[in-house]
């Protein structure tokens, strides 16, 4: 895959990823801001603002006008807010790229943020919060991140924010956040798929080149000072207990990032992973159990998540901890290491097949790393990992004093869980 990068005079970056054999094209505009860039009173504002971008511009005066135009060309379109980035995108058949680019550029550059729509959208976002509250599998990560990062640190707060904030935001709050965070130096426009490079580049330069200069926002760095295991329980009547067990880990570009990826895969990626076999296949404790890695520029974590019968929480956590101990004490076999590497390389390659995935990867990579990380580079990085690397990283990260256990369910005995972690 070829990525062609351009930087405008105002600092905005453009990435073109031509795929002439493709019959689709994706436009994504991503800015390097999210809930991490909010203070406590602003928490939830980044996500609310993302919603407001679809409420009308001068050219398209309503949400209906925007959605009808995109629906009328069969577009797949949406937006998302994460902790460190926010994006707006549309994927279309190649002949409709001009329309998709025009709409996405328009909402990003010219949203009017009408007061009456802000008032109406409060209700929708509060319903979104309530919807996820009824889905503990989707909100246990909020409990975990508040435990890991602390509720006072932006990374420890939720993306949606508390309801009291949602009810209090005014148009001035949105305008101030927009001016502070949506700057050209902090924005990437990416087009992937089949398109006329010269024409598309000229259009982006014309639309985005007029944005005024502005410095990218700063974030509060996080340094883990944890020296004992921790437990957080959100007591709730549920049919299942949902939990995440994890540890602080490495940031982007850490020297052991690929070893960590392989370690996570061996533990809990795929139906032949250690945790899937031990927790589900051998003991029948959970329907789903998986491990993953989350990374930021300054920190990260390794986590395992599962949903179990209330009475089997302790047994499941113990089973996971036993697997942590095993992988610290005994080197993985050559066969298991090779399988994990092939799993990562295969899924990574498959994930970069389509124009929307390629556009998202390129924009995210540019936001976080200031360059597009090529697939070949990542595959080579995975190949370099040895069994000794896995053991070393496991010993570095999977330590008792670094364990964090977040639980949602009808539980109250925090001390029992702490005792389990210390064994």
Strand order in space, largest sheet? 1-2-6-3-5-4
Shape: globular
Helix content: 40-55%
Number of strands: 11
The rounded distance between the terminal residues' Cα atoms is 49 Å
The average pLDDT value, as a whole number, equals 97
In the CATH hierarchy, the architecture of the largest domain is 2-Layer Sandwich
Stretches where pLDDT is under 50 for at least 5 consecutive residues are none
Q: Helical stretch count?
A: 16
Q: What is the H/E order?
A: EEEHHEEHHHHHEHEEHHEEHHHHHEH
**β content, as a range?**
15-25%
Structural domain tally: 2
| CATH top level label of the largest domain | Alpha Beta
Query: Can you identify the CATH superfamily of the largest domain?
Result: Metalloenzyme, LuxS/M16 peptidase-like
Structural class given helices, strands, pairing? alpha+beta
Radius of gyration: 23 Å
CATH topology grouping of the largest domain: Cytochrome Bc1 Complex, Chain A, domain 1
Largest sheet: 6 strands, mixed
């Amino acid at each position: 895959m070829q990525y062609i990068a351009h930087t405008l005079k105002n600092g905005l970056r453009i990435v073109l990823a031509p795929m002439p054999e493709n019959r689709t094209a994706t436009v994504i505009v991503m800015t390097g801001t999210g809930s991490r860039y909010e203070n406590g009173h602003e928490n939830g504002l980044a996500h609310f603002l993302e919603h407001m971008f679809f409420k009308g511009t001068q050219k398209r005066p309503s949400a209906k006008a925007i959605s009808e135009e995109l629906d009328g060309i069969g577009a797949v379109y949406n937006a998302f807010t994460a902790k460190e980035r926010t994006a707006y995108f549309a994927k279309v058949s190649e002949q409709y790229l001009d329309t998709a680019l025009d709409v996405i550029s328009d909402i990003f550059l010219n949203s009017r943020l009408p007061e009456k729509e802000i008032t109406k959208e409060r209700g929708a976002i509060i319903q979104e919060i309530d919807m996820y509250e009824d889905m503990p599998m989707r909100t246990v990560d909020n409990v975990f991140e508040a435990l890991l990062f602390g509720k006072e640190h932006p990374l420890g707060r939720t993306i949606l924010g508390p309801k009291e904030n949602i009810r209090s935001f005014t148009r001035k709050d949105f305008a101030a956040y927009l001016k502070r965070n949506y700057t050209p130096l902090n924005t990437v426009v990416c087009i992937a798929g089949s398109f006329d490079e010269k024409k598309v580049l000229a259009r982006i330069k014309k639309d985005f080149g007029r944005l005024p200069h502005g410095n990218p926002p700063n974030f509060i760095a996080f340094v883990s000072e944890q020296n004992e295991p921790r437990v957080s329980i959100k007591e709730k009547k549920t049919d299942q207990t949902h939990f995440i067990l994890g540890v602080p880990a490495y940031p982007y570009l850490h020297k052991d990032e690929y070893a960590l990826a392989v370690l996570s895969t061996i533990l809990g990626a795929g139906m032949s992973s250690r945790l899937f076999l031990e927790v589900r296949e051998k003991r029948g404790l959970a329907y789903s159990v998986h491990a993953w890695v989350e990374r930021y520029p300054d920190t990260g974590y390794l986590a395992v998540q599962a949903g179990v019968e209330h009475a089997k929480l302790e047994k499941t956590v113990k089973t996971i901890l036993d697997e942590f101990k095993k992988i610290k004490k005994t080197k993985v076999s050559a066969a298991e290491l090779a399988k994990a590497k092939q799993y990562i390389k295969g899924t990574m390659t498959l994930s970069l097949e389509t124009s929307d995935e390629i556009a998202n990867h390129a924009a995210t990579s540019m936001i976080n790393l200031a360059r597009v990380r090529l697939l070949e580079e990542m595959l080579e990085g995975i190949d370099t990992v040895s069994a000794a690397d896995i053991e070393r990283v496991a010993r570095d990260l999977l330590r008792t004093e670094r364990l964090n256990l977040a639980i949602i369910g009808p539980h109250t005995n925090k001390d029992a869980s702490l005792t389990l972690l210390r064994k």
